[in-house]
Specification:
It holds the Pfam family MDMPI_N. The protein is mainly alpha-helical. The protein has helices at residues 8-23, 42-60, 78-93, 116-138, 146-158, 183-190; strands at 102-104, 113-115. It starts with 7 loop residues before the first helix and ends in a 9-residue tail after the last helix.
């Protein structure tokens, strides 16, 4: 029986649009708030997220200059700058044939290249988790459709655990033991966040 193809373009778009909705509620004072994402403030997290958007968008066009992945300054209006970066990657991923391209992702290594569908799955899981990060930082909650959470859980489970999680530059901290029933909580715990943050 042929398994259905997962539409990472649509799933990623939901995750990114959710992040836009959350970030758009942030005020200037909110930018100094802590986040569950390492030692980043909300500003630092948004700068990372915006940089990733531009990096993945460039990779979708066949660009491989590592300078693209240098963390960006968000200027005088960080919320607007983030939204622009998110709209930029949404447009890039909506182009015909994007899943059939090869993405060179310099942040994974100088010769790291991935099929488009796999690269989109990386971006997708990042923005499910980063949307959760932003929501926690702002003291609110985030929800996704059951289908999105099911897909995110599948992608999350592929992320290796063990010593690789403590290596320099690893994108995810060691997994956090968690026995709750909420699917999003289980996803973020597997990817190194404490669902009970900031407690």
């Amino acid at each position: 029986m042929r398994m259905p193809t997962i539409d990472y373009v649509q799933l990623d778009a939901e995750a990114v649009r959710t992040s836009i909705e959350l970030v758009s509620t942030a005020t200037t004072d909110d930018l100094s708030r802590p986040t569950p994402c390492r030692a980043w403030t909300l500003y630092g997290l948004l700068a990372h997220m915006a940089t990733q958007h531009y990096g993945f968008a460039a990779a979708s066009r066949g660009e491989s200059d590592p300078v693209i992945w240098k963390v960006r300054d968000l200027g005088d209006d960080p919320v607007k700058a983030y939204v622009e970066s998110a709209e930029h990657v949404l447009d890039a991923f909506a182009q015909p044939g994007v899943v059939d391209r090869t993405f060179t992702l310099a942040e994974f290594g100088p010769d790291a290249a991935f099929p488009g569908g796999q690269a989109l799955s990386f971006h997708f899981i990042d923005y499910v988790v980063h949307s959760w990060d932003v929501a926690k930082s702002l003291g609110t909650t985030v929800t996704f459709t059951p289908a999105t959470l099911e897909a995110a859980q599948v992608v999350a489970q592929v992320v290796p655990t063990g010593d690789v999680r403590v290596a320099p530059g690893t994108p995810f901290a060691p997994d956090v033991p968690w026995s709750g029933e909420d699917t999003l909580d289980r996803i973020v715990a597997h990817l190194g966040r404490n669902p009970a943050w900031p407690n």
